[in-house]
Amino acid sequence: MDAGKLPLLQSFYPWLNRELGIKRPSNNRFTYLQCSHVPSEWHPAWIEKSLERAGFETSFSPLYELGPELLEKTDTLYVPSSHDEFFLKSRSDDLLAFLARGGNLVICAEPCQPWLPFMAPFHAVSPRPFTNIKVRVRNDRFGIFADLGGDFDGWEGIFGQYARGWSDPPPGAIWLTDVGPEGDPKPADWPWQYPTTTTGRGGYVFMHNGDNMTRYPDRGPKKEALVANVCLALRRLSIGELLF
After folding, report:
1. Most buried residue among 171, 198, 201, 217 by CB atoms closer than 10 A?
2. How far is the C-alpha of 221 from the C-alpha of 22, rounded, in Å?
3. How far apart (Å, rounded) are the C-alpha atoms in residues 127 and 24?
4. pLDDT in single tens digits along all 244 residues of the chain
5. Residues 6 or more apart in contact with residue 147 via CB below 8 angstroms
6. Hey, what domains does the chain have and what are their CATH numbers?
7. C-alpha distances in angstroms, 198 versus 98, 174, 180, 202?
8. CA atoms within 13 A on the CB side of 32
């Protein structure tokens, strides 16, 4: 599609919904899955304010409470990197049903044992030279990284810890960021729409092959806005304000 036509189409669909009186769900319930009792991981101090500014209602739930009842109460489920792969694999049917009915899933992971069928094992890039783990924006069609500054992949002064590698995306995923040598880049971040015939429109997955995104960026023009930007993009895709 001609990139010049995207803004027109993105504004057209909300207008058409209003004209036809179609009320789409706001998809603004966000659940942070608590996977580690380290205070900064269990309940990041700033995350509620950041998500509230983006229009989300935030809740927190321990990992081992994950099941159909919890998923029924959320629109976007956020999985930090410090998770139990074996437990999540035991909940794969629940998570796939959540995606099939239009729920969104944000995953921070370096999968050793992929716990959903569309996930693949993690591959680390060579740490030498160190610039290999400087993440570069490849495609920001959803506006996730545009206002974060060039050092969005740094945390508390540490360069390049945002992602150390990649996992192969499923067909139809969009490659957003590069990691590894500039001559042989790999996908550090990719979103993908879950295919479903139940509703005709499955939810979206944002796969971040790295550390918990609540740590990034800790500085820059929009400090601590990365998670909110990701979730806002998924929500806008879900309600038809953006095109995938």
Report:
1. 217
2. 36
3. 46
4. 444 444 444 445 445 545 555 444 568 999 999 999 999 899 998 899 999 999 999 999 999 999 999 999 999 999 999 999 999 999 999 999 999 999 999 999 999 999 999 999 999 999 899 899 999 999 999 999 999 988 899 988 777 789 999 999 999 999 999 999 999 999 999 999 999 766 667 999 999 999 999 989 888 888 889 999 999 999 999 998 998 8
5. 221, 222, 225, 229
6. 22-238 (3.40.50.880)
7. 12, 23, 38, 8
8. 25
- At 165, which amino acid appears? G
**Can you give the pTM of this predicted structure?**
0.88
Q: Which two tokens mark 138?
A: 């490849």
Which residue intervals of the chain are DSSP H helices?
Answer: 6-20, 39-42, 47-53, 68-72, 85-90, 92-100, 226-238
Q: Which two tokens stand for residue 174?
A: 């969009």
Strand-pair partners of 152: none
Closest C-alpha to 204, from 62, 75, 54, 16? 75
